UniProtKB/TrEMBL annotation:
GO terms for cellular component: cytosol. It comes from Citrus clementina (Clementine). Its EC number is 2.7.1.35. It is an enzyme of class 2 (transferase). One of its GO terms (biological process) is pyridoxal 5'-phosphate salvage. This is pyridoxal kinase. Gene3D superfamilies: 3.40.1190.20. It comes from the Eukaryota. Residues 129-231 form the Pyridoxamine kinase/Phosphomethylpyrimidine kinase domain.
Amino acid sequence: MLSTQEFLSSCRPCLGTSRKTHVFRRRSSSISGMAPPILSLALPSETGRVLSIQSHTVQGYVGNKSAVFPLQLLGYDVDPIHSVQFSNHTGYPTFKGQVLNGQQLCDLIEGLEANNLLYYTHLLTGYIGSVSFLNTILQVVEKLRSINPNLIYVCDPVMGDEGKLYVPSELVSVYREKVVPVASMLTPNQFEAEQLTGFRIGSEADGREACKILHAAGPAKVVITSINIDGNLFLIGSHQKEKGQSPEQFKIVIPKIPAYFTGTGDLMTALLLGWSNKYRDNLDIAAELAVSSLQALLQRTVNDYVTAGFDPQSSSLEIRLIQSQDDIRNPQVKFKSEKYN
């Protein structure tokens, strides 16, 4: 087995960091003398071009299946790389599929770079299952920023929930020491924020302080997507617009729906990316739109399971993503933020 250093060395040829200006390369064509342009590069959308590295399932909506479609609805060009490809999510009795390793990720990045296709405005990452793959992600960040120094890296540090890790414990220190410093926006849940800061969140004030600790480490935007204190569920957002300044902070109270859903964290982070890029100086507005979309989708999911004669509290539920596209494009804002002084 390769050591981490040997593994990283093997990836360097495809993830070198020499800085260069992005130039669209004309390619030969037997019909017209050159290939048509890549329109997402030649005529970029007003929103952006996203590289999303997450899990993928054939059936159901988690990882990229939960993130790509909403971002496309919001006007983004999205290129997905699947860190795993499974038949279904792992909550089923069984699943089959493949896991992408670090060298295979290198190969994909190398292929994009060879054809001058590696210009992105955003990088989005979700579930990562190994230290070696996460270290390769860090090299991808460096490579993308060598091409576009203004790249926005949105990281959902998927590690666990409700006091339990579901990734190897070694990933925590890599996230804390290497990933957080290069992220533009972080979207941890309560447990993940505690893991990243070493700080227990037992109150709203603790949640705000955890955001400040994370700002000091790197990201300008932090959204702790779910905090559960004394039976109350809420989100805390924090935007430090200039280093050294006090961040603008807010909360959104979220109603509890008595059911368990898969893919909601992946969807929430995608929605936060989508709306925060449209409202760059108003993270509170972006969060209101994201929460309102998500809550409408979850309520529709519950209602549809009831209509189908299934008790929504008896098992994890597959979200009704396609049926909720209007709520994603044009959400009715029913959940307002409350700014902290």
